[in-house]
Design goal:
The protein has about 270 residues and is of the alpha/beta class. The chain has a single domain, classed as Alpha-Beta Barrel (TIM Barrel), CATH 3.20.20. The protein is built from 10 helices and 12 strands. The strands form 3 sheets. An 8-stranded parallel β-barrel has the order 1-2-5-6-7-8-9-12, surrounded by 6 helices. Helix 4 links the parallel strand 5 and strand 6 (about 120).
Amino acid sequence: MTATMVGILNAEPIPDQYKQNGFAIGCQAYSFNRYTVFEAIEKTAETGSKVIEFFPGQKLSKDDSTPWNHNASDEVIAKVQAKLKEHGIKAVNYGVVSGKDEAEWHKIFEFAKKLGLYGVTTEDTGKLDIIEPLVKEFDIRVGIHDHPRRPDNPNYKVWDPYYILEVTRNRDARIGACADTGHWQTSGLNPVWCLRTLKGRIISSHMKDKVDFGQSHDVPYGTGVGEIGRCLDELKKQGFEGNISVEYEYNWTASVPDITKCVEFVRNHKTTEK
């Protein structure tokens, strides 16, 4: 393999210029799922974020109903990249996404490479034998995301950090967890304990703070039960280099002020644990 080919395959790390207080803190575009991709980028910039994580299926713009996903043409990708550049935002992740077969997963990784993404987020644990070779080929990370536990569906297991450890054991180190701290709270789990359990396998995070454990809603970081400060301390202690996406699932049409507070919390947080 030539040096040029190696350069093509190397995934782009998240540059320090897009980090705040050592963290690549930004928005999961799903926070703005009532809006278009272009509007999500604009609102992400309004919050003081410097990075964004896209999700599949969002309408491109007010004037273009093309769905934004891994089937996007090079022309559509160029439009999104131009919009990102206009607002000083870097795309770093994409998900939660799944692929029906190897061909679709290859398309997902090609899309991620074109955007220069750090990682991809999925719950597709049944296809890790397909995903792992692509992680090695493209040098792009994959985080397994957790939604809340489902008491009526014992086959849904990704809510459990021990399950994530089990399915990633002996896998490439670039496969791990997308730590959704809010869904852990909904499942009755302490987010700090979950992060410690997954030490060495945390790829990215959908970070949330919530009013209470169980069924409750999102609140600005530091005002709920999620111990966000301790979560940040734990990630820093682990040498975490991935993205933290604010996925705010409350006040859907007026969430920018609350998300701005989340970003400010991360920017101003002072580590207390050694």
